[in-house]
Design brief:
Elements lengths: L1 H28 L5 E4 L1 H7 L1 H38 L5 H54 L4 E4 L13 H11 L7 H6 L7
Parallel strand pairs: 1-2
Helix pairs in contact: 2-5, 3-4, 4-5
Length: 196
């Protein structure tokens, strides 16, 4: 029993020693790290493309919310009217009107959900188009600065300000994609293509 523990311990020492030798030889072949930091959320927020589309997104969301509120108001009024008619209608006629109201309410709810999904898809596709172009310009910045790693800022605990290339990426993105349009037609077909 004792001998097997000693043998295992000796094997572990050789394994660890061998690993450190492998790591040392591999480290000599790897290039020295040249790293920069990018604040992706800031780039998405502050790019001209994002700023160009933000008022339209806000307008569309407000218009959608207004339509939903108006529809809810109409349904409430219809339900109140149905409740008033309950005392004057025969049970069969009331049941028929109640079923018709339920069908109408379900249909309205489906339409609201469908429209919400269409808008969410369209807004998502617009954001993805900006993001695709951001990736392209980030690669250009990495190549221009001979970087072998570009790390998103939210994953970095502490870094020197000189490592941050966000401003350079935003400037290139603004030249490449100064504005973007929301395409509701693309929302049903899936994501649109970004510039290559």
């Amino acid at each position: 029993m004792y001998r097997s523990h000693v043998t295992l311990f000796v094997l572990l020492i050789f394994a660890v020693g061998g690993l450190s030798f492998v790591k040392t030889s591999q480290a000599q072949k790897l290039p020295s790290p040249k790293i920069a930091i990018i604040d992706v959320q800031k780039a998405l927020r502050q790019s001209k493309a994002s700023k160009s589309v933000r008022p339209e997104i806000d307008r569309m969301r407000k218009a959608f919310q207004k339509q939903v509120s108006e529809q809810e108001q109409r349904l409430r009024q219809a339900e109140q009217e149905l409740s008033r008619q309950r005392v004057i209608l025969v049970p069969e006629a009331f049941a028929q009107k109640r079923r018709a109201f339920s069908v109408s309410a379900r249909e309205a709810q489906k339409n609201v959900q469908k429209r919400r999904l269409e808008l969410d898809r369209a807004f998502g596709n617009t954001k993805n188009e900006i993001l695709r172009n951001l990736i392209v310009v980030a690669k250009q910045v990495a190549e221009a600065r001979k970087l072998n790693m570009l790390v998103e800022k939210r994953f970095v605990f502490i870094s020197a300000n000189t490592l941050d290339v966000t401003a350079d990426v935003i400037a290139r993105l603004d030249k490449r994609l100064p504005n973007v349009a929301i395409n509701l037609g693309k929302a049903e077909k899936g994501a649109g293509k970004g510039k290559k």
